[in-house]
Amino acid sequence: ATDLTGKHALVTGGSRGIGAAIAWALAERGADVAITYERSADHAAEVVTAIEKQGRRAFAIQADSADAAAVKRSVANAAEHLNGLDILVNNAGIARGGDFVDMSLDDIDALLNVNVRAPWLASQAAIPLLPEGGRIITIGSCLAERVAVGGVTAYSATKSALLSFTRGLARELGPRGITVNVVQPGPIDTDMNPADNGDFSEMNRRMTALGHYGKPADIAAMVTFLASPAGRFATGGVFTVDGGTNA
Ligand code: NDP
Predict the structure, then answer these.
(1) CB-ligand 1 contact for 75 (6 Å cutoff)
(2) Is residue 112 part of a domain?
(3) What would the pLDDT profile of 114-132 be if each residue is shown by its tens digit?
(4) Does 213 map to a domain?
(5) Lower CB density within 10 Å: C or N end of the chain?
(6) 0.95 cut: is pTM over it?
(7) Which backbone phi and psi does 245 adopt, to 5 degrees?
């Protein structure tokens, strides 16, 4: 019931971290996968090669999520090259921290454009292409619901915006049999949030119930479940995978 053979997926920000793990996991279950990236052409090429070794089709698209036209184009490109689109995973995201009062307009714009506007625009481009059984899965953050420390105010707010977006879109697409969900990671060991020697590593670890960081594969497991036929009755849902950080 978690087989994805014959499905076509686009994962934004699939060159590294959580997105790369999601792309790999979807392909492992049989999907052909397109990924976007901003700068890491080499990493993106490695992800593509790894997926092709599994016998699936894969390709990488350079597309800055802050660029509205590039986002729209990447969805059309993915559908064209894969011969359709069944699954959109809005994963690309950036973190900019510091006291909110001092945050620059550039940082505010970047956060809104990449973390909020890009999932909106990618979904808008994908909706007409998705068949019955289609999936839109967005990667939020456990910070969308609880903010236990200062310095992440604007980032957390961009992730909260994805909750209403997901709920409303689930209502709009339910009649077409398309599900829309958000997956909220807690601390996951990536370049964005390294488990070792990061400024916040120890604090993040202490805030979990399990006492340790998660791995990108832990988020990919939830995404592949929601993407699969087994996840068909879950929509408008918020799936927190945070090691108990928000418990
Ligand atoms: P990383 O920084 O490790 O990887 C980010 C990925 O997104 C890369 O593939 C990067 O591409 C891509 N990306 C970043 N900015 C852009 C852009 N402007 N246009 C296109 N692609 C872009 O992040 P994570 O894997 O840790 O995070 C993935 C998602 O999970 C994000 O939405 C993040 O907010 C969320 N999250 C992560 C948590 C964590 O603890 N790691 C916790 C909660 C949520 P490139 O390689 O080209 O730079």
Answers:
(1) no
(2) yes
(3) 999 999 999 999 999 999 9
(4) yes
(5) N
(6) yes
(7) -55, -40
User: Looking at the domain assignment, is residue 3 inside a domain?
Assistant: no
- Domain that residue 181 falls in: 8-241
Q: Domain with 160 in it: what CATH number?
A: 3.40.50.720
Range 220-238 burial, b when 16+ CB lie within 10 A, else e: bbbbbbbbbeebeeebbbb
Centroid of ligand 1 to alpha carbon of 175 (angstroms): 32
| pLDDT tens column, 56-82 | 999 999 999 999 999 999 999 999 999
The reply to whether 1 falls in a domain is no
Task: Confirm whether 37 is a catalytic residue.
Answer: no
ipTM comes to 0.99
Q: How many structural domains does the chain have? A: 1
What is d(CA 92, CA 89) in angstroms, rounded to the nearest whole number? 9
Q: Rounded CA gap, 188 and 212, in Å?
A: 9
